[in-house]
Specification:
Blueprint lengths: L2 H14 L9 E6 L3 H12 L4 E5 L22 H14 L3 E4 L2 E6 L19 E5 L4 E9 L3 E4 L14 E2 L2 H4 L8 E4 L4 H10 L5 E4 L7 H9 L3 E3 L3 E6 L5 E6 L4 E3 L2 E3 L3 E4 L11 E3 L5 E4 L12 E3 L10 H37 L1
Helix pairs in contact: 2-3, 2-7
Length: 354
Amino acid sequence: MSETTAVHAAETTAARATDELPGETVDAVVIGGGAAGLNGALMLARSRRTVVVIDGGTPRNAPADGVHGLLGLEGIAPAELLRRGRAEVRRYGGLVVTGEVASAAPTASAAPTAPAPAAAGGDPRFTLTLADGSTLTARRLLVATGLRDVLPEVRGLAEHWGHGVVHCPYCHGWEVRDEPIGILAVGPASVHHALLFRQLTDDLVYFTRGTELDGDTRARFAARGVRVVDTPVTEVVASEDGGIAGVHLSDGQLVARRVLAVATTMRARTDGLEELGLPMQDLPGGTGRHFATGKAGATEVPGVWVAGNATDLTAQVGASAAAGALAGAHINADLAAADTEAALAATQRGRTRA
């Protein structure tokens, strides 16, 4: 077995490995096993908190060849980064369970043995039900579900997502430098997109796809050597090697391109979380929708934090991981406050009985 094959086999085995759900209430459940969720779980586990990560196994960056812009781990395969993250969480006693959260909701009443409410926000409980019917109770939740990229409806486009079709000049830019690149416009955000990709290639075509492009912007594009095509795009054409050959226009013309860049519509994953009542926020122009959060990812719902792309749609892997760590630290601090209030209440009850 070659080294590459052995590594792939190890990653596959690790990806399938799942821990058993605990029967008792845990300090925190992390919904989502990407960079944000795993780093949040790591902070909690290292603080000696009982923590369970529920991971559906569908990371946003799965089609990518490598993670970029992550200091010390530049170019690491996404699957390898997550494999290492799961191992680190488990090293400190955290659990990683493969599954989908079907529902998550505040528990109607805390168990009789639950600590007394803390001074600020109380000590809530949440019940989670997985797709297989199993359940779990937690004192705190960290939502790190990530987002879904919604591509424009162009025939043949989705098949090349993550390879010939890219969205982020910082995630993929170096890898597509000097290639003939096409920008498939979706709205005003695509103008900024084009200027960033122009830094990476001298051969850039901007396909307006029916979006407005004023005279000033056209002049700026012309000054930078960006060709503008107003004729509608009908199809992305594959090359013989499986990549992109170009795009067909409605007039029958084929514009040769090797790479297409598109600003996707980004939507936070909310499946199974509706009963939590978490507030949402829309980005201007319908370009995205995410969970609304405050300091360190705290939400208006006591006991629930959100980190990563579910609340910061443009965050790269490093920023998502950092946000998860910060949220994990704040969750631990909130639990510490609740534990202290419970201990104080127990002491006072003991004195009263005496």
